[in-house]
Each structure stands twice: as structure tokens, then as C-alpha cells.
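Project standup — Tuesday

K.O.: blocked on the structure for the chain from last sprint. Re-posting the sequence here as requested.
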Amino acid sequence: MHDMQDEEEYLPYSALTRDILGCCFVVMKELGPGFLERVYKRALFLALTQNRLQVEIEKLFEVKFRGTIVGRYSADLIVEKTVIVELKCCEHLLREHQAQVINYLTVAELPIGLLINFRRRKLEYKRLRNQESIEFNEELAEEKLPF
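H.V.: unblocked you, prediction finished:
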């Protein structure tokens, strides 16, 4: 039988991501599919802050190349200065969406990302991690990525 400590070692920040996903499911249950991404972003922001989680909305990050800013992006939500939550309203989550979140994690130097799709009646999500910012053992290095 596995316990919370084992889960936290295998899936770092699992308690936090579970809380965030719980809020996503509540938003989906109350609003249903069909709204624009910004509607879900505002609703999720409210649900997370009402759950007493610290949330930053549309935080700007700079992408640098050889010391020069070559781009900027804004994360939909950052929860507890740890998890990037990227929202989508599309038919299916694609590998490109996952790559986008992994790039965001790298630039932001944050450990965990949640990619959430509110388009369908059943919430679709992917949990991604920044391998460079999480200490992990050799066995976890062999973990298969979801793409």
C-alpha cells in the first residue's frame, strides 16, 4: 500500500496539484463546457483564491538568448509560486500544448505545470514537470513522458 509520502516522492507537489485539479473540476461542474478561455481563467482564479491558495494571474516572463530578451510570455495562472496552470479550450490537448508548458516551466524555473482543457464535457488535463528544477532519483528519470 502506498502512502502520501511515497506519492509526494514520485509525484512532487501532488497535494497542491490535487487541490488545483479539484478547483478545476468544480469550475467545470458549475460552468460546463463552451465558454471562452478567459471565463474559465477568471472562475478558476476565484475558486483557487477562495481555497486560500496564492495565485498570480498572467504573470509575465522574459525569454532570454545570450543575455538579450528575445520574447515574452504570460502564464495563465501561477499557484503558490510553484505550479503553472495553462488553460485551453480546444478539441484535444496536443503535443504542442505540452511543449509550450514545458518551455514555460523552464523559463519560469518552476517545477510543475498543469495543462487544462475546458472544451469538452469531461475535463482533460496533463500534469507536466520541469525535470531541471526537481530533484529526482535515477528510477524517476526513466519515467515515460505523456507524449
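K.O.: great, moving the ticket to review. The CA atoms of residues 27 and 44 lie 6 Å apart. The two ends are 28 Å apart (CA to CA).
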